[in-house]
Every structure is written in structure tokens, then in C-alpha cells.
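job 3f2a | input accepted
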Amino acid sequence: MDKQPITEKMHLEKEWFEEAKSVKSIEELSRFVDKMLNSYEHDYGTACQAIAACSVACSWLGAHVEGITGFQAGFVMWDYIRNWTKTGNECGLRLVDYDDFLYPQYEDKYDKVISELSWKAIQKKARELLDKDDGHACPEVRQHWESIVNGVVPFGYKVKDLI
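job 3f2a | predicted structure (163 res):
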């Protein structure tokens, strides 16, 4: 089968993501994934969009079958991020939704705070980096790690219980 050559400028991802959200069975998912991976001659960007559309289709199917809540969908997103792009993350992650800037009740989301758990993980990682550094870290980085180990929270952040 000949693959259809496409480019990012064609913006096919818009229709792919809409189609992905409508997948309601394993058979539909299989056809969708086959279409995404085998029907197009992807460029650098469309390959990423096709893979993302496959992931979205699988997530929507799972949500349809399991009837999950939006709260549970948040867990799915974080597990996906931790197991796809941030597999080595040891200190925690944060996602900022700037749409919430439009609503005053979300002000506390934008405080420069980190949890005690994340702060302890950062300090532990800084200690590990210092211990294994064989003199190749630049002096500014090494000084920053030492400051963290010594309890100085960087970048204007404060440690606070976020729950």
C-alpha cells in the first residue's frame, strides 16, 4: 500500500485528534492506529502528532470502557508523562495551566511553592550529584548544589505543604 505523503503544514492533526476522541472499541482503536502508522509518509512533526493521536485514542477508549472521572484522567496523564518522557524524574513534576490565570480563585496555583516531599528529593539528588562529581561540574553548578544541600531553596521558591 502506498503511503500518503503529508507535512505539518497540512494540519491533519486536528482531524486525527477529533477522530481519536471518538474511538469506542478495540477494533476501532486497531484501525485508527493502523491508519496513523501505516497510511501516511510522516515528516518529523507529523510522526509525533500521529503517535500522540494514537495515545489519545487509547486513552479515550479506556475512559469510555472504564467510565473514569476527570480526576482519574489526571492520574492517567501523570502516569503517562512519568512513563514516557520523564522516566528518570526523581524530584517531582509540575504542570502549569495558564488558562487558569483568567480566574482569581486559582491564585494559589501560581505561588512559587514546592512540597516538602519534593524539596527533600531535590536535596537528596543534589547530595548525590555532589558525591559523584569528579570535578567536571562547573563551579556555579557545584555551588548551586551545595546551596541546596545546605537548605537554601532556589529561584524564590518556598517549601510549603501543598495539600
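job 3f2a | The CA atoms of residues 26 and 114 lie 40 Å apart.
job 3f2a | closed
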